[in-house]
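ok new one. same drill as before - structure tokens go in, u give me an amino acid for every spot. 371 of them this time. try not to just spam alanines like last time pls lmao
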């Protein structure tokens, strides 16, 4: 939505709004999971106060301004700096946005220890509910009944209801916000976090660098994120600071990265920090296994083999050309190690037969991690 109505923002005195420069604001809602991949735009006069910008962005995304945080992603050379608009509410938009830049990115994120509140589609507001009525509303939400309409309502699709808060306290788990296309990263982080030995080892490590070094330290940012996952009162926390420590800019979170390579980068960073400590071999102890890879000639039965170490196994969820997926990890592992006959394009030269043959290839998991 591009707003062209100048009456929405009060211009500075003695400024002709028709002639003054305008700033194109691109807004991404990082709270609503259904809107995380979409963008809205509003075109505001450069003389607009940041307070007015906060109001406009809040209206555009239909949140109550005091229940959210809005950040401006300011690009300085090759770096990106996040500026919370609430820290500069008395400034003008032109004070933080460089004129001449075609578009400026703003993100709507959660405010610390505050549930984001949506503006209702229906304006009338009933009297404040009692505890009993809130409990009743929560019960009806769980059972699928329609909730009552308030002027201010928590956003149901994100789980921000009284009932969901109660459920969260029972499970004790905190989620991860999908920045753009970082669901693969979130899966990796949750897997590592749910390994108690890995998590505790990361907690025992002490960062001894400067503030600038902390900004670029993968182990420090991962440790910080783990602590948030364990102690935060939010429904979900962000991974922005961790991805920045990878050296990514704002555009790279929209690219699908290889999760195996990303895991290797994180492990390498941790191993370099844990060198010469009692945790030096922890990653290999927790995740490394041994696998025998061999090929066997079907004519002379000659076999050649090698044993390799692995930290991960690339399992197929749905075989190529199949309409059905494997129902369990065990089934996918069975398929991974199932012997296969190599076809014409993958022929193997048998030294005993002195010719190319179609051998059988087999994988055998010789040792699993921590065993």
């Amino acid at each position: 939505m591009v707003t062209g109505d100048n009456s929405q923002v009060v211009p500075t005195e003695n400024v002709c709004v028709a002639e003054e420069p305008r700033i194109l604001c691109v807004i991404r809602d990082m709270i609503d999971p259904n809107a995380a991949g979409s963008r809205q735009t509003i075109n505001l006069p450069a003389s607009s106060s940041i307070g007015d910008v906060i109001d406009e962005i809040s209206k555009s995304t239909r949140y109550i301004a005091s229940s959210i945080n809005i950040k401006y992603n300011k690009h300085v050379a090759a770096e990106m700096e996040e500026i919370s608009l609430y820290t500069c509410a008395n400034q003008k938009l032109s004070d933080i946005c460089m004129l001449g830049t075609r578009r400026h990115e703003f993100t709507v994120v959660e405010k610390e220890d505050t549930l984001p509140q949506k503006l209702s589609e229906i304006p009338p507001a009933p009297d404040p509910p009692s505890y009993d009525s809130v409990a009743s509303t929560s019960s009806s939400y769980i059972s699928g009944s329609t909730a009552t309409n308030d002027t201010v309502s928590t956003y149901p699709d994100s789980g921000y209801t009284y009932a969901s808060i109660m459920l969260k306290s029972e499970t004790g788990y905190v989620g991860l916000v999908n920045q753009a296309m970082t669901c693969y990263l979130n899966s990796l982080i949750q897997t590592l976090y749910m390994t108690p030995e890995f998590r505790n080892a990361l907690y025992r490590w002490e960062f001894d660098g400067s503030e600038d070094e902390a900004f670029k330290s993968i182990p420090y940012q991962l440790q910080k994120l783990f602590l948030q996952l364990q102690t935060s009162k939010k429904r979900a926390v962000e991974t922005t600071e961790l991805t920045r420590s990878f050296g990514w800019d704002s555009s790279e979170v929209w690219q699908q990265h290889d999760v195996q390579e990303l895991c290797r980068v994180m492990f390498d960073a941790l191993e370099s920090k844990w060198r010469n400590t009692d945790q030096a071999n922890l990653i290999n102890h927790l995740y490394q296994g041994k696998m025998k890879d061999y090929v066997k000639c079907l004519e002379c039965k000659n076999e050649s083999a090698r044993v390799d170490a692995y930290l991960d196994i690339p399992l197929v969820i749905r075989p190529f050309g199949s309409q059905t997926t494997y129902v369990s990890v065990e089934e996918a592992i069975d398929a991974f190690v199932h012997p296969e006959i190599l076809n014409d394009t993958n022929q193997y030269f048998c030294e005993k037969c002195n010719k190319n043959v179609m051998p059988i290839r087999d994988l055998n998991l010789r040792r699993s991690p921590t065993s």
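The domain at 288-367 is CATH 2.20.210.10 (ubp-family deubiquitinating enzyme fold). and btw The longest strand covers residues 68-76.
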